[in-house]
């Protein structure tokens, strides 16, 4: 079931999504419905459901069943064409970002061609005046700071060109103590209290964070902090050719090729417990299954009955989630008339925003595939409700019939008010949709954090093997802009607050790369080669705690990171976080970082044996499954090569990283440890290094319960299954040659060659395979 749990923080959370209505099937009497027995049931074929199906289909084949309430796949990802068979344009999600390594890797895996856009500029119209936001520098007199001074003069605007008023506002908001967020739980109220009515108006005009009211201040600020790196100047927009729906289509095709069964126009009507585990009713099916992954959003879930569904709906976490409606209207034109405006000039517009009317936002395609269509989203209202949403709802109707004359006239009027110096012609085609649950956030009355909602979604009912997946339940989106979905048992919020010291030593690594061995070696170095350090009664896992790990149901005061905060400087600890995900203090303080890596083939073998060693993972696969998980970049702490590159590319700019391979230690222990000791400020004799070598040798470590993590509590507690093998298992170089089939080896070689090309900065990192 571990694979299923991880999917609840799947790649779907990287996307901004939209939604259409449900195409209901005719319901037949229950005793006349087809009965299906499925090993796993996935509800919904949006991104979350499709990715889960794509991931599980190779393992479960025809035992995997998928139901979808609509006649089409994709959920809130929708691409439409002007005419049947024509090129498509995004009505909802339209792009990914260059820094989203996992979703970019998935695109490569699926064979989806991508177009990358360079500099992006947004035109802002506010109270009749025009300004610009850009990913690069723009003249101060044209920027958003000047807009603040000109249009919102009573706001505390930045008085120079070096600092950003919006950045200052966000910093002020995120620095507020928790009690202020409780007192001003509504985000709109918080903005007014902090910056005044004019300050809130400026914030609304200059940022994409626009809510009329009724949403949680704490949840919004957590999302802002989580996405802080996403819109940096180094990020670029990446557009899939064929639209975001290419992800859905290709994942569905792959899943069906593996044998999964998909049933459309079959909304879940009831979810109940049964003798097999669960019973799910649809209009024409009764499905019995021991496991369910549901990607239904809260709005759709409201109409589902049954004791399991009722248990979900009664949860305070569920009741605190607010569905935010979006409006999108797309138009196709005979010419790109906006490029004739003096406002366009020599800038490459990607968006126009104006809150002077219900126009809200206009998206202009600049990537070649969409630009050739002369298509724009002429209305994009993500404001979360209000009179504008109501107006568009009336004008758009169901969205299925041709656009009304009233809708076209309203669009033309609003565009003409923005582009005052050109004639806005009548569009060839107009299509509009209301996405009633285009996004999700927490209500101001919610008492739960975004992270608590995510944790709840892993097991939202008393019934095991039922989980909720998708954007609605992972409101936070990502961690520190890394866009890698880390396991839910990590204390990432507290890790970011951790204050490292220049005296601290952190061992950084991909899992199963020799972390414990390096811990033992550093322990000996810091003790000047005293063998007593290996027999002092203190386990190596206590001396080197894993910075971000916690046990299920553990109280926060017992979390390792919180215990470490109480320790004096000079702490030693481990982390599997990538460089980008490290707490800021660890990179800024001068703390020593020791990065150990291992050739990817032996890392795969070690990971396989580690998986079968952990009963709680319930891993039922084989070595081929682990090979596939690496090749498909599905690894607990992020893709293998992305992790390596995140550190390796910093080796010239961060003097506090020591690199060492597992094979370096195996092939020349004395020289490697001497270098490491010097880096740690120690000068050891050959005799002292020999002691460390003797005590940390794998045979010796296997017999030392303090190094081998063989304490009775971890075995009796079901954490490790010591009947399989010892924690310190093998430690050889080249075991992959005994374990891999020729097919596995060919697959790994192709993956390694591809990744070394994708990450040219790794070209001088050499792997030793035997």
TrEMBL record:
Keywords: Signal, Transferase
Signal sequence, renumbered to the chain: 1-18
Amine oxidase domain boundaries: 52-471
Residue ranges of every copy of the Sulfotransferase domain listed in the record: 504-759
Matches recorded under Pfam families: Amino_oxidase (PF01593), Sulfotransfer_1 (PF00685)
GO MF entries: oxidoreductase activity; sulfotransferase activity
KW Protease (keyword) present: no
Record flagged with keyword Signal: yes
Classification via InterPro entries: Amino_oxidase, FAD/NAD-bd_sf, P-loop_NTPase, Sulfotransferase_dom
Matches recorded under Gene3D superfamilies: FAD/NAD(P)-binding domain (3.50.50.60), P-loop containing nucleotide triphosphate hydrolases (3.40.50.300)
Similarity comment: family membership: Belongs to the sulfotransferase 1 family.
Protein name: Sulfotransferase family cytosolic 1B member 1
Organism: Hypsibius exemplaris (Freshwater tardigrade)
């Amino acid at each position: 079931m571990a694979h299923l749990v991880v999917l609840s923080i799947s790649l779907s959370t990287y996307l901004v999504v939209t939604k259409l209505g449900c195409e209901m099937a005719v319901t037949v009497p229950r005793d006349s419905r087809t009965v299906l027995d499925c090993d796993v049931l996935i509800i919904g074929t949006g991104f979350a459901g499709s990715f889960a199906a794509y991931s599980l289909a190779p393992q479960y084949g025809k035992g995997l069943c998928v139901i979808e309430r609509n006649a089409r796949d994709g959920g809130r990802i929708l691409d439409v064409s002007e005419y049947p068979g024509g090129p498509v344009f995004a009505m909802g999600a339209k792009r990914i970002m260059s820094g989203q390594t996992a979703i970019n890797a998935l695109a490569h895996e699926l064979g989806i061609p991508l177009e990358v856009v360079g500099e992006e500029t947004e035109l802002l119209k506010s109270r009749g005046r025009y300004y610009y936001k850009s990913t690069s520098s723009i003249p101060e007199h044209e920027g958003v700071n000047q807009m603040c001074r000109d249009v919102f003069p009573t706001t505390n605007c930045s008085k120079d060109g070096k600092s950003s008023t919006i950045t200052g506002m966000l910093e002020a908001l995120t620095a507020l103590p928790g009690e202020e967020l409780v007192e001003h739980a509504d985000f709109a109220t918080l903005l007014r209290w902090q910056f005044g009515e004019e300050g809130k108006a400026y914030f609304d005009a200059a940022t994409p964070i626009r809510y009329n009211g009724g949403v949680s201040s704490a949840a919004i600020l957590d999302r802002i902090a989580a996405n802080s790196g996403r819109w940096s100047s180094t990020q670029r927009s990446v557009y899939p050719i064929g639209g975001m729906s290419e992800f859905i289509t290709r994942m569905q095709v792959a899943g069906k090729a593996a044998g999964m069964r998909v049933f459309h126009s079959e909304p879940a009507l009831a979810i109940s417990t049964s003798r097999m585990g669960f019973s799910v009713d649809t209009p024409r099916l009764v499905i019995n299954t021991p496991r369910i992954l549901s990607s239904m959003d809260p709005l759709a879930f409201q109409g589902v009955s049954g004791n399991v569904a009722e248990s979900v709906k009664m949860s305070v976490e569920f009741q605190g989630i607010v569905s935010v409606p979006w409006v999108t209207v797309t138009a196709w034109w005979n010419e790109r008339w906006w490029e004739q405006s003096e406002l366009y000039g020599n800038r490459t517009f990607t968006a126009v925003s104006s809150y002077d009317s219900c126009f809200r936002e206009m998206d202009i395609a600049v990537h070649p595939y969409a630009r050739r269509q002369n298509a724009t989203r002429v209305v994009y209202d993500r404001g979360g409700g209000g009179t504008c949403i109501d107006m568009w709802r009336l004008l758009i109707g169901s969205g299925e019939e041709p656009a009304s004359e009233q809708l076209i006239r309203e669009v033309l009027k609003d565009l003409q008010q923005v582009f005052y110096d050109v004639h806005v012609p009548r569009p060839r085609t107009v299509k509009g949709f209301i996405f009633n649950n285009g996004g999700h956030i927490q209500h101001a009355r919610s008492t739960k954090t975004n992270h608590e909602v995510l944790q709840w979604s892993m097991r939202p009912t008393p019934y095991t093997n039922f989980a909720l997946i998708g954007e609605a339940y992972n409101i936070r989106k990502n961690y520190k802009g890394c866009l890698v979905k880390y396991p839910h048992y990590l204390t990432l919020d507290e890790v970011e607050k951790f204050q490292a010291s220049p005296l601290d030593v952190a061992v950084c690594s991909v899992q199963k790369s020799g972390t414990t061995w390096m811990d033992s070696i550093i322990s000996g170095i810091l003790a000047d080669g005293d063998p007593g350090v290996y027999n002092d009664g203190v386990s190596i896992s206590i001396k080197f705690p894993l910075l971000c790990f916690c046990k299920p149901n553990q109280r926060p005061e017992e979390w390792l990171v919180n215990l470490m905060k109480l320790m004096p400087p000079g702490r030693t600890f481990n982390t599997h976080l990538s460089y980008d995900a490290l707490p800021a203090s660890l990179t800024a303080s001068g703390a020593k970082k020791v990065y150990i890596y291992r050739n990817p083939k032996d890392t795969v073998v070690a990971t396989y044996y580690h998986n079968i060693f952990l009963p709680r993972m319930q891993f039922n696969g084989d070595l081929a499954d682990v090979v596939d998980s690496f090749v498909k970049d599905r690894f607990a702490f992020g893709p293998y090569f992305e992790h390596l590159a995140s550190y390796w590319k910093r080796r010239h700019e961060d003097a506090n990283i020591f690199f060492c391979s597992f094979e370096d230690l195996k092939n020349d222990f004395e020289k490697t440890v001497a270098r490491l000791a010097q880096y740690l400020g120690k000068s050891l004799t050959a005799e002292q290094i020999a002691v460390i070598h003797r005590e940390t040798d794998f045979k010796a470590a296997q017999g030392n319960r303090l190094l081998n993590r063989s304490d009775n509590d971890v075995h009796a507690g079901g954490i490790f299954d010591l009947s399989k093998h010892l924690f310190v298992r093998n430690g050889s170089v080249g075991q992959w040659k005994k374990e891999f089939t020729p097919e596995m080896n060919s697959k790994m070689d192709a993956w390694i060659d591809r990744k070394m090309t994708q990450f040219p900065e790794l070209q001088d990192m050499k792997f030793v395979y035997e």
